[in-house]
């Protein structure tokens, strides 16, 4: 790939590396897909949670880490995604396809919402999204057909628990794969470059002809769809929604933020690692109850103050190493010619 | 007559929202920090008040004299030790840190005090009211709350306009680096502003607890949204705008209450979102009112 | 005893140096002018002296006290006052409030609201006006007045004439000569060479962060300064104290 720099240089978009990562990723994915035939049900059942956590962290990171929109209201879309299953399931769709259909429907709902949310910036955007989540919950619980505030269970569901678990597992895995691949391609595309320039300097980006609002809106909708799909999985695994206050709870935002911060905000790898760390913490310590939440809060503050790049960000900074090649690097075509640094 | 009563109660409720919003507005105006834990700081203030009045056997009003300075000190220290460092790291860090607090505080409060509502006794004042007509009576406490909101706004404006620390805060809001060139450590000014914001939040928390008949650990999740909505509806500029915003929100809630007991919160939120859409320009900048 | 003494100061942005190994001193009552093209590092150097920009190496002493590690607001309290580039008035404060902010250092001395207004008469009708509603020249006068309000012993002036009409610049320089009668030391950064040569006692010429020429204003020829300004050879100028820049 040549560029306008000069004939002596090329812009490396890491095409080769992208192919390798793609192949390795596909292998991991295939392994995960056949894992239910190898491991016991309770293992794969736990993995479902890991998969939706990774989806949540990945999409929140896309929103906050890449587009600079710090939302504490993604629970609006988690809740809508979960409740959407009832809507489409009641229409006769099976619950698994309902996850995907509901996710698309939530994306359609998120589009007009973005016009409200984008009236606010920075910290006020954050609280604004929180208000939207609250209002969404308050509207949803007004519908008798959705359990009117008491929660609901899925009516037509696979009878056999093993198959139910298996199907949920595959849907969760597919959504996680989609979330990562979509984020990866989004960032490698023209949009990714636009996003990073917006995050660095919105005014400058605008003056360079980047359609700032449009770019942010795409990310907002995609992130909402990701959260909705994760919400759908949560609903499938719980056989329904036990409490609207939980599914629409701000705690989900706390978890997303924690995962992304500990893993490393603004990297693709970070949220995945953060989700794994959180998953393990949750697995072993969640019986601590309230103090567990306190520990998460304290850890998030400490990481923000003393390890702002997160675990993965620190590793990749120290060793200049990335698994997912996003962005590009200008390299001399002939080794020996040094790039002039200003 | 119901509607007249609802309108009066709405205005009075607006006073409470305005008190809740003052600290949030001040912290944003001076430091450009949106304190996501503002509601939890309010709740914490109410709990401190309950603790002092139960352990020392004092009056609520006396407990305020202890709680408010204590919360000022906490705000000062939090700013100096954590938020100041976070401010240098960009916009994300202070948000994340205050969000961390908003997660920590309620969970610590439940662990220590359980989920039960703790009373904030104010004696006869709780039921005292002025009977205006057969269907309209004005509670003395809500009236007092509105009066205190007005007094606090006047005092805050006088403080910002007339005193040296107040002027320093306005200067720090404009240009902290240049303030340092004047021989004033802006970090100190920032910390004082955050201390004041915490102190105002604590005071608001006590009043909120009184109105709700007590305080529970998760009140903050609700009050932070009220405070924020009042600030935004009011237009992010002057404390009087915040009072107006609080009254709009109060009216929306009490009038909605006429149509159904579960409606006030939803309608309040929808009115806020409507105002947001109808405002010609979004909310992008703000200054401390002078 | 020097009022200000800086020794081999270096500073910069990111990894890019802006000032490299510059030394000079300022005596009480002396006006030292820093001249040089855009990007020569003059403003950065002034900000380093005021403590507003991080120092990489070297030392700053004030009244023979090492203040290299002293923070900006403490230096202001000790009597170093910077009039920053772009004036940087507090936009939401009135002119009077801006001036009073200058007195925040609470240093005793000649200067107070009355004497500042007397020395800078153009401020007088503006006192109750909001600082955001001033012209460039008015802003500059207020910025200088604000700095004087702290009764500084060392006044650092950054690009006072930038973007101003010549007639306003004349007025400001006139006020400056009134101000200098109070005996304070001044370091002046200025693009306008002829004006600088007229007012300065001592001139330091900077090029790409280095001190390339310095000497008493009376002893430096205009040509030598111009040559140093543009980075031409300065070997033939005998009266100048020649500096080898980086190799010093």
Description:
The complex is a heterotrimer of chains A (342), B (290) and C (248). Chain A is built from 14 helices and four strands. Chain A is mostly helical and 342 residues long. Chain A has a single domain (9-327), classed as ABC transporter involved in vitamin B12 uptake, BtuC (Orthogonal Bundle), CATH 1.10.3470. In chain A, the strands form two sheets. Chain A has a two-stranded antiparallel sheet. In chain A, strands 2-3 form a two-stranded antiparallel sheet. In chain A, helix 6 (161-188) packs antiparallel against helix 9 and helix 11 (251-263) packs parallel to helix 13 (290-306). Residues 1-5 and 335-342 of chain A have low confidence and may be disordered. Chain B has helices at residues 2-31, 38-55, 60-87, 92-113, 140-162, 164-174, 176-181, 186-211, 219-234, 239-257, 263-278, and strands spanning 129-131, 137-139. With 290 residues, chain B is mostly helical. Chain B has a single domain (2-278), classed as ABC transporter involved in vitamin B12 uptake, BtuC (Orthogonal Bundle). In chain B, strand 1 (129-131) and strand 2 form a beta hairpin. Chain B has a two-stranded antiparallel sheet. Chain C has one domain (4-247): P-loop containing nucleotide triphosphate hydrolases (Rossmann fold, 3-Layer(aba) Sandwich). Chain C has eight helices and eleven strands. In chain C, the strands form two sheets. Chain C has a seven-stranded mixed β-sheet with strand order 6-7-8-3-9-10-11, with helices on both faces. A four-stranded antiparallel β-sheet of chain C has the order 2-1-4-5, covered by helices on one side. The radius of gyration of chain C is 18 Å and the shape is globular. The A-B interface holds A 64, 68, 70, 72, 115-116, 118-124, 126-128, 130-132, 134-135, 138-139, 142, 250-251, 253-254, 257, 261, 265, 290-291, 293-294, 296-298, 300-301, 304-305, 308 and B 28, 32-34, 36, 82, 85-86, 89, 91-97, 99-104, 107-108, 110-111, 221, 224-225, 228-229, 232, 262, 265-266, 269-270, 272-273, 276-277, 279, 282-284.
